[in-house]
Amino acid sequence: MTLTRQRFTLQDYLHYDDATDTRYELIAGELIPMSLGSGRHGEIMHQLERYFEQQIATQNQDWIARKGIIGVQSPQRGQWETVRIPDVTILPQAQWREIRDREAVILLSDPSPIVVAEVVSPSTRSVDYRAKRTEYALLEINEYWIVDPLAEKVMICTLVEGFYDTVELQDEMMLASPLFPACDLTVQQLLKI
């Protein structure tokens, strides 16, 4: 017996409601349920959001950081759509105001987020390091942060001429980046929550 998978368009995804609290990413037209993640994963997301909000305020930027509630349409080859939900997303306040009263998905026709961050878990390691890195570079997202509590490191990927240059940070190294140079948080402080 052959099973056929139901494929969803972007519009199907945006209007999908299965009457549960399950959050889904749309990957090549398939709904993929997102796990809750460990408590540590959630704590790192929370700490990152707070860190980014602090840095945004210090720099007096008109940006906002949101954890786990903004989808980003991804450029995929083929006919089926993909929407990722990064662990933390930074975007301009004006863009947030535009999407907060509708499905909070940044479309390919919208300006890209400024920064996205993913916290690696055993089930997402390959996707976070490989697929998302490629997708986020194609979207021209200025910085992609890969926070890996399993390997006890943070990789800050900075977009340069369409590709990410990567700096790997560990231990007592400060989480400074081109967008957030005035850092007061170390990798160890972030990961040892």
Assigned CATH superfamily: tt1808, chain A
Q: The biggest beta sheet, please?
A: 6 strands, mixed
Level-1 CATH class name: Alpha Beta
Residues in helices, as a percent range: 25-40%
**CATH fold label:** tt1808, chain A
Question: What form results from the Cα inertia axes?
Answer: globular
Give the rounded overall mean pLDDT: 91
Structural class: alpha+beta
Please state how the strands of the largest beta sheet are arranged side by side.
3-6-8-9-10-11
Counting DSSP E segments of at least 2 residues, the number of strands comes to: 11
At CATH level 2, the architecture is: Alpha-Beta Complex
Keywords:
alpha+beta, globular, 193 residues, tt1808, chain A
Question: What would you note in describing this structure?
Answer:
A hairpin with a 2-residue loop joins strand 1 (24-27) and strand 2. The protein has a single domain, classed as tt1808, chain A (Alpha-Beta Complex), CATH 3.90.1570. The chain is globular, with a radius of gyration of 17 Å. The protein is built from five helices and eleven strands. By secondary structure, the protein is of the alpha+beta class.
